[in-house]
Amino acid sequence: MNGNDVTLYNLEQHTLKSVIKVAILGAESTGKTTLCRDLAAHFSSPWVPEYMRTYLQEKWNNEQQTCTWEDLLPIAQGQIDIENQLALEAIQGTQANQNQQDELAAPAIDKNAEQQCYLFCDTSLFELMIYANWYYGDCPKALSQAALAHRYDLILLTEVDIPWVADDLRDSPYDRQAITTRFENELNYYNKDFRRIGGDRQQRVQQVARWLRELN
Fold first, then answer.
1. Per-residue pLDDT at 108
2. Selection from 31, 24, 52, 50 nearest residue 160 by Cα
3. pLDDT at 16
């Protein structure tokens, strides 16, 4: 397929080892955004919104048009730009909080103990790659290379256990399970370690919190 000039795009992920990155993947309307927000609130950490929704909602509002092949690389660029920026801000915010705590800490508090820094990502380029192949049977090479190179400390795949909710962009109320299976197969094929996450909002947050404690 013809696409954009890939030389216009830099999809490199800025890997900051001090930030624990969690990527939440899954079919539409399976609670990814809600889980991101809930985890961010629980851990007082930032979360990365799904840039594709912002991009395509604006396109729909202005043109009444949906996603095309030519949108894939601009969406990928927007997604990784936001993730990289928020990863940097997460570190800066954690350092500022740590310095403030150090100034106020009582002598009994261990000042060497560092506050954990998390970043919760509502989707990743891996998800965009899956959807590119699902809808178009192909994916821009630059996108697939970046998607497979990017690293996350924890990858979650949301279960299809909540009702589908319609909006301007969602179009697959009956394909969610098939898409979830596609995600699972692709994650396994590329040796991406992941965990399935389901249940109500509280159960999901509690389960992820347990997994993050295990990582630490």
1. 41
2. 31
3. 84
Joined together, the tokens standing for residue 13 give 């992920």
Rounded to whole angstroms, how far apart are CA atoms 69 and 49? 21
Q: Which residue is it, tokens 């840039």?
A: 51
How buried is 65 (Cβ within 10 angstroms: 0-12 exposed, 13-18 middle, 19+ buried)?
exposed
The answer to whether residues 25 and 211 touch, using CB atoms and an 8 Å cutoff, is no
In what order do the strands lie in the sheet containing 47-48?
47-48, 117-122, 19-25, 154-158, 195-197
174/16 Cα distance (integer angstroms): 38
Tell me the C-alpha distance between 46 and 32, whole Å: 15
Q: Quick count: other Cβ atoms within 10 Å of Cβ 199?
A: 14
Token readout for 132 is: 């590119």
Q: What is the C-alpha separation between 212 and 16, in angstroms, rounded? A: 17
Whole-number Å distance between alpha carbons of 118 and 153: 10
How far is it, in rounded angstroms, from Cα 164 to Cα 129? 22
Match 């506050």 to its residue by tokens.
115
| Amino acid, single-letter form, for residue 83 | E
What residues does 22 pair with on adjacent strands?
120, 154
- By percentage, how much of the chain surpasses pLDDT 90? 71
Global confidence as pTM:
0.86
Question: What does the angle CA 12 – CA 28 – CA 143 come to, to the nearest 5 degrees?
Answer: 20
- The CB density around residue 123, as the number of other CB atoms within 10 Å, is 23
> Distance between the two ends of the chain, CA-based, in angstroms?
44
